Amino acid sequence: MIPFPEHSLEAEPYYLPVGGEVEIFEQCHARKLAVMLKGPTGCGKTRFVEHMAWRLKRPLITISCHDDLTASDLVGRFLIRHDGTQWQDGPLARAVREGAICYLDEVVEARQDTVVVLHPLTDYRRVLPIDKTGETIEAAPGFQLVISYNPGYQRMLKDLKPSTRQRFVALDFNFPPFEQEAHIVRHEGNADYATAQALVGLGQRLRLLQDRGLAEVPRTRLLIAAARLISSGVPVKQACYSALISPLSDDASLLEAMRDLVDATF
Ligand code: ADP
């Protein structure tokens, strides 16, 4: 069983560039530089890396980080079999051998002793030492390390160490400008353009509620979810309440303020 998703992407994953991120990533790939995609959840980081893997014709191995993730989960382990033990590469080791793009999503969730395994892959050495076998794997051409990092999230509890973050070129992700976000919502949400524009306008007004204590503001992903419900026949306001508002807060006064904004939009 392969525990982590790995795929060669055949169809182009739709991605609308917002700045020069495609060109910069291509340069990083050509120059063997590791990349950090920085920004809140739901802003297109995963879609971007899928698109870049497709563009660069590299397999993509994605690892969702969590606080139980060990170095062995990344590098590999000996499996006990009836006739002895056998080494099995982890997803990082496979990516290094195969020259894949290895995407570690939400890397800050992983423990520090897990993250340090990445260090020798991010400098001129481009190697992965495997302590348990004594092997040192040299990264195949095309291998690239990409991490995503949400700076605001759990900032007081967890953060990336400077010794880790200075090994990456950082690309910032945030809300796309109005017109671009409307195109994305139309495409991904299967919506007509007027509805997409109205949803993005509503999203922008909801985002202003951050000043009134709304901790999580709606990202593009939620606008797309609302558009999908609308295009499948759910009444517009109901779709907004369910997909756009209710996930964001449990606070009665904030929910009321958000409902008022929906009612004023549609
Ligand atoms: P993240 O990895 O930052 O949490 P995702 O890549 O999963 O976010 O983005 C959420 C959704 O938003 C994607 O599935 C995609 O539909 C859409 N999206 C966001 N930004 C873009 C963009 N620039 N181009 C195309 N789709 C986008």
TrEMBL record:
Residues 181-264 form the CbbQ/NirQ/NorQ C-terminal domain. SUPFAM superfamilies: P-loop containing nucleoside triphosphate hydrolases. Keywords: ATP-binding, Nucleotide-binding. It holds the Pfam family AAA_5. InterPro entries: ATPase_dyneun-rel_AAA, CbbQ/NirQ/NorQ/GpvN, CbbQ_C, P-loop_NTPase. Coiled coil: none annotated. Signal peptide: none annotated. Residues 35-168 form the ATPase dynein-related AAA domain. Belongs to the CbbQ/NirQ/NorQ/GpvN family. This is CbbQ/NirQ/NorQ/GpvN family protein. It comes from Keguizhuia sedimenti.
